[in-house]
Amino acid sequence: MEPLSKEMRDRIVGFQRNEITEYHVYTRLARLMPSDENRRVLERIALDEKRHHAQWKEYTGEEVSPSRLHIWLYYLLSRVFGFTFAVKLMERGEERAQKAYDSVQSLLPEAKRILEEEDEHETQLLRLLDEERLRYIGSVVLGLNDALVELTGALTGFTFALQNTRLIALTGLITGLAAALSMAASEYLSTKTDQRNRSPLRASLYTGTAYAAAVGLLIFPYLIIADLIVCLVCALLTALLIIAAFNYYISVAKEEPFKNRFFEMAGLSFGVAGVTFGIGLALRRLISIDL
């Protein structure tokens, strides 16, 4: 084999580091799997990644250390956001690696076989993705969407009608928590009547918790900031960040388009906020309340 150019050698060292890093990631994720079948598949994929590392090492002759940062990052993501999100996010990295492998296939015959095995990994991983939190994602969407639409609108109306941050926070909390309990109860009854394999109690908990969490985040600025307009702007920005973060999670975990869902949720929330702004201002002038 002809000596590799420095550019090609550096590229292969990158492949090598990526493979040994993914070996450690898949090994750690396998330990989290309650299902023996899922665990075995992940362990087999981990061994394939280790073998790929060894194949690249034959070209470089170097011992390459894994990226400890990426290992802990994906492990932490899997613990916080679930196995599905962490794996899907890592898949996106593998797609970039596959394109890089394409660029060296003409010079390195091993690249084609490794690329075929990476494609097989993706298929195997997709079969694994049966996670409780994704089965109940509809309940989370219901809680978050209702909280964001209703409370951003209510807070906007309260801000211009009540003109007192503490009073707005108290009114918002009472309204929001009462609505969270109401939504949880409604989701319990709704889930009990559908034919899907979901627990009504868990569905109601996901809906109520998502609603209550959104309420707490949106109300928080009114508890620590005195200026009404600043509070409202912070609440609306918080709503936008929640919408962006949640839709990014969905776009990764369920491979759905981010942009359409984001603009739909944001449009509903801010549209309702705009309408209630006018209602709150009009009612304050009509009833002539001075607080």
Overall mean pLDDT: 79
| Percent of residues in β-strands | under 5%
In the residues, how many domains can be counted? 2
In angstroms, what is the radius of gyration? 25 Å
In quaternary terms, these chains amount to single chain
Instruction: Identify low-pLDDT runs.
Output: none
- What order do the helices and strands follow? HHHHHHHHHHH
- Helix proportion range: over 70%
Shape: elongated
Main sheet summary: none
- Our count of helices gives 11
Distance between the termini: 84 Å
Task: Please write out the topology.
Elements: H1 6-32, H2 36-60, H3 68-81, H4 83-102, H5 110-128, H6 132-135, H7 137-162, H8 165-193, H9 200-224, H10 228-253, H11 258-287
Helix pairs in contact: 1-2, 1-3, 2-5, 3-4, 4-5, 4-10, 7-8, 7-9, 7-10, 7-11, 8-9, 9-10, 10-11
Overview features:
291 residues, mainly alpha, 84% helix
Report what the structure shows.
The chain is mostly helical and 291 residues long. It has 2 domains: 6-130; 133-287, no CATH class. The chain is 84% helix and 0% strand. The chain contains 11 helices and no strands. It has helices at 6-32, 36-60, 68-81, 83-102, 110-128, 132-135, 137-162, 165-193, 200-224, 228-253, 258-287. Helix 1 packs parallel to helix 3, helix 4 crosses helix 10 and helix 9 packs antiparallel against helix 10 (228-253). The termini are far apart. 33% of the residues are buried. The model has no long low-confidence stretch (mean pLDDT 79).
